[in-house]
Every structure is written in structure tokens, then in C-alpha cells.
UniProtKB/TrEMBL annotation:
The chain crosses the membrane at residues 6-23, 30-51, 57-80, 87-109, 115-134, 141-158, 170-189, 209-226, 232-252, 259-277. The keyword Transmembrane applies. Its main location: membrane. This is Drug/metabolite transporter (DMT)-like permease. It comes from Rhizobium pisi. The keyword Protein transport does not apply. Residues 141-274 form the EamA domain. One of its GO terms (molecular function) is transmembrane transporter activity. One of its GO terms (biological process) is lipopolysaccharide biosynthetic process. Keywords: Cell inner membrane, Cell membrane, Lipid A biosynthesis, Lipid biosynthesis, Lipid metabolism, Lipopolysaccharide biosynthesis, Membrane, Transmembrane, Transmembrane helix. Pfam families: EamA (PF00892).
């Protein structure tokens, strides 16, 4: 992978860890997840007029992605309600690239080199070490996390293909971001009522705007990278976000980190280096 692609994917990983921390810190995780999705859509709107429309063949992928993103944000909120970020985040992000790596040859006909496959496995091993080390969590948290890993792998394929055939990965990303918040808030209003949802928006709109801008930028960088490098490789490198999540957990949430968390961080970093050398 070219160094510029690696650096931009790593920056996207930092943004991803940041918006997940915003959801974890919130008092109402479902509505905060919907707000972040909406923040991403608001951030996208000003740029749509300056970009070409995605190719017609990409629109079914945009629709499928919206449904998967709806499921993703719902499962993120459910997992963070029932488990610690040290368990949930690594499981969600660590299992997804393994699923992609195991199936990309069949689905995308991408042949990964032995070095790239070794890098993917190394990064995933480091991430999963963090999950196994975490002491807080429940069976439900594990189920939600593993289910979301499947959703992540699914939308990685959908959007990886969609971005490639759209003609413009940035335009695809921005248009893809518009529908999920509509679905999320429609669901929230049906479950909570419009008054409760409007009250939460008035009090926490800034969280959604900051987190949403980071979310859409993070995913846009990943999709752009998928047009320059194999999808499985980019998906694995993106999971270095767990390193940034570890720093945030210690410096912001004041969580105690055991030696195994730092060992896992080194393993993830080594995996990133292996990918670079592959």
C-alpha cells in the first residue's frame, strides 16, 4: 500500500475511534448514534452540489448500504448499553476484517499476497486480544458485537464495490450518508415519541455534528482507499482505530489499562507495518 493511503486510513481510524467514544460517553446511546448519523448527513450536504452524481449502477448499492448502516448504528448503541468499550469495540472491529479476508477471494476475486494476509491476521489478533483481556461485559454484549461484525463486513463489501463503480468515491460516500439518519430517527420517533427525540436533539445537537463529521470523513477516507488497494487490506488497517480508542479510554475516560492492552497495541502496530511491507 502507498504511504499516503496508509496515513489517510490511519487518520480515518482516529476519527472513527473518536465518534465511538462520543456514543459511549452519551446518556442515551441510541439517540446519540442517530444524531451522529444525522451529523454526517448535514456535513455532506454542502459538498453535494460540487460533485458529480454517482453512476446509475451504484444507486442500488447506496440503498443497500443505508439499510446496513441503520442496522450498524442500532447495534452499536445496543452493544455499548450492555458492555464495556474495551470488550465491544475490539470484538466489532476485530472480527469484521477476518470475515472480509476469509471471503474476499470468493466475493471480489481479490487474491491477497501472503504478506497482506499475515498483516490482516496480525492486526485482528491484536484487536481480539484486547477484547479477551476486557473484564467488563455480558453475553448480550458479545452477541451484539459479533452480529455487528457481520454487518460491518457486509457493508464493507457493498460500499467497497459501490465506490468503485460509482465513478467518484467521495460522491458515493456523501450520497450514501443521507438515508440512514432518516431511518434512524423515524425508528426513534416511533419508539420514543417526537417530544423526547426533539428534546434530546436540542440538548445534544453539537455531539451529533462533531461525531457525524468525523464519521463521514473516516468512512470516506476508507472508501477512497478501497479504490486504491484491496478491500480486505484497507478493512484490516482501519482497525488500528483500537489504538486510538485505547489512548482515549486512558486519557479521557480515565480507565486503567493493563499490560496486555499495550501488548495488543504493539501487535496491531506490527500488523500495520507488515501490511506496508507486503
Amino acid at each position: 500500500m502507498p504511504i499516503d493511503v496508509i496515513l489517510l486510513v490511519l487518520f480515518g481510524a482516529l476519527l472513527h475511534a473518536t465518534w465511538n467514544a462520543i456514543v459511549k460517553a452519551g446518556s442515551d446511546k441510541s439517540l446519540d448514534a442517530a444524531l451522529i448519523s444525522a451529523g454526517g448527513a448535514v456535513s455532506a450536504l454542502p459538498f453535494l452540489a460540487f460533485l458529480p452524481l454517482p453512476q446509475a449502477v451504484a444507486w442500488p448499492f447506496i440503498g443497500a448500504s443505508a439499510i446496513l448502516q441503520f442496522a450498524y448504528f442500532q447495534l452499536v448503541a445496543a452493544a455499548y448499553r450492555t458492555g464495556d468499550i474495551g470488550l465491544v469495540y475490539p470484538l466489532m472491529r476485530g472480527c469484521a476484517p477476518l470475515l472480509v479476508a476469509a471471503t474476499s477471494g470468493f466475493i471480489l476475486h481479490e487474491n491477497l499476497s501472503p504478506g497482506a494476509l499475515a498483516g490482516i491476521m496480525t492486526i485482528s489478533a491484536g484487536v481480539l486480544t484486547l477484547a479477551l483481556e476486557a473484564r467488563h461485559g455480558s453475553g448480550r454484549a458479545v452477541i451484539f458485537s459479533l452480529a455487528n461484525a457481520c454487518v460491518i463486513a457486509s457493508y464493507t463489501y457493498v460500499d467497497g464495490i459501490g465506490a468503485r463503480i460509482s465513478g467518484n468515491a467521495v460522491s458515493y460516500t456523501l450520497w450514501m450518508s443521507l438515508l440512514p439518519p432518516v431511518l434512524l430517527f423515524a425508528w426513534a420517533v416511533s419508539q420514543r415519541g417526537s417530544v423526547a427525540v426533539a428534546r434530546h436533539i436540542r440538548r445534544n445537537w453539537w455531539r451529533g455534528l462533531i461525531g457525524g463529521a468525523g464519521s463521514i470523513a473516516s468512512y470516506g477516507l476508507a472508501l477512497w482507499a478501497m479504490t486504491k488497494a484491496p478491500v480486505a487490506t484497507v478493512a484490516a488497517l482501519r482497525e488500528t482505530a483500537i489504538l486510538f480508542a485505547l489512548v482515549i479510554s486512558v486519557t479521557v475516560f480515565k480507565e486503567k489499562a493493563s499490560i496486555w492492552r499495550y501488548v495488543a497495541g504493539v501487535v496491531i502496530a506490527v500488523g500495520g507495518l507488515v501490511l506496508k511491507l507486503a
